[in-house]
Design goal:
With 275 residues, the protein is α/β, with parallel strands linked by helices. Helix content is 32%, strand content 23%. The chain contains 8 helices and 12 strands. The chain binds zinc ion. The site of zinc ion has 6 residues, from loops.
Length: 275
């Protein structure tokens, strides 16, 4: 039996043609399709070689990447995109809204908050809208706009079809509360109702019948636990209970944030009234 405490995340097969290839901090996923390799997100700058080596260690050639999808426009999800697209000729995809972060129209990449240099600006090739669906051989990727963490977060419903054995994989494109606090939103000229929109997104996602939950940060979707299961010989990580549980957890997290802000405000108001 392998213990989760002793082990670091390493690339592993999540389901048939879907692999985790990120690190402990940020997820990157690889989907192997008849039309080429698909990446979901490209990690931090320092993950550049790790991701390429992980693809090679699984037996694939990074030159065969045909598509790079992005969950949202924060630097930890797109730092290596330009280089990977250059080496492979891959098409790049992000929401139309968050593309304005990549091309520098809006300074919201979170680079300064992470103490990183902003990247050279670029535009993605395909600007995603809610409902867009893409087919790569027997794999389809459907985009659901779920704003909150950024205005242009895209969640992905990915259907893998192995000779009729379908697996619906879902990734929420951004759940971090760091960019949903009233303080952050106000400082950056973003609307406070992004938190309500986030909750609406959770409701929409709850309509999906999902077999396998993945996430863009490993700790948010118990990726290490999944890897340990695989190392211990489990070959099927599908669990329909994970998705509704994950969505409910997120609703509770954002409700807690809103409540604590209300309480803070009430205290401040009472303080002012008492002066
Ligand atoms: Zn983010």
């Amino acid at each position: 039996m392998t213990n989760t405490q002793e082990i670091k995340l390493q690339p592993f097969q999540m389901h048939k043609n879907l692999y985790f290839i990120g690190n402990e901090d940020v997820s990157v996923h690889l989907i192997v399709t008849e039309e080429g390799l698909i990446l979901i997100d490209t990690g931090f700058p320092e993950m550049h070689d790790l991701i390429l080596n992980n693809i090679k260690s699984l037996g694939y050639d990074p030159k065969n990447i045909c598509a790079i999808f992005h969950s949202h426009g924060h630097l930890d999800h797109f730092a290596n995109t330009q280089d990977y697209a250059k080496l492979s000729g891959a098409k790049t995809y992000i929401s139309r809204i968050d593309n304005d972060i990549l091309n520098g129209k809006r300074d919201l990449s979170w680079a300064k908050e992470m103490g990183l240099k902003p990247l050279p600006f670029f535009d993605c090739d395909v600007l995603l809208e809610d409902g867009d669906t893409f087919t790569f051989g027997s794999t389809t990727i459907r985009c659901i706009h779920t704003p909150g963490h950024t205005e242009g977060v895209m969640s992905f419903i990915i259907t893998l079809d192995d000779n009729g054995d379908k697996c619906v994989v879902a990734m929420h494109g951004g759940i971090g509360l760091n960019s949903m606090t009233a303080e952050y939103l106000t400082q950056n000229g973003l609307p406070l109702d992004l938190r309500e929109k986030f909750k609406e997104g959770l409701k929409r996602l709850a309509l999906e019948d999902v077999d396998l939950l993945i996430g863009n940060h490993p700790e948010q979707t118990r990726t290490l636990k999944k890897m340990v299961k695989v190392l211990n010989g489990e070959t099927d990580l599908r669990n329909k209970a994970d998705w509704p549980e994950f969505l409910a957890w997120n609703k509770a997290r954002v409700d807690k944030l809103l409540k604590s802000e209300e309480e803070e405000k009430a205290k401040t108001d009472a303080g002012i009234a008492g002066v």
